[in-house]
Amino acid sequence: MTLYEFFGDGCPHCQKMDPKVEKLEEKQEVSVEQLEVWNDQENAEKQMELDDGKCGGVPFFYNTETGEWICGETDQETLRHWALGKTVT
Length: 89
Hints:
Blueprint: E1 3-7, H1 12-28, E2 32-36, H2 41-51, E3 60-63, E4 69-71, H3 76-83
Parallel strand pairs: 1-2
Antiparallel strand pairs: 1-3, 3-4
Helix pairs in contact: 1-3
């Protein structure tokens, strides 16, 4: 399973998610691969492929095992469920 967070350098919404991702990684023993898209064309293309019209912006979280995604900022509990492969409501 791969967990991705696509973000933009300097994006205020992405910065608000940083502590939540860190907490998730500490408590759940999972790793979220952070991919910057505003300055990295390869990462931007990967986001476009996985996003496929779902969000169109950052932050965008994607779980490769479940196909679940999160658009924008979210709360800690939703992020946790996403990382554990539970349905995000």
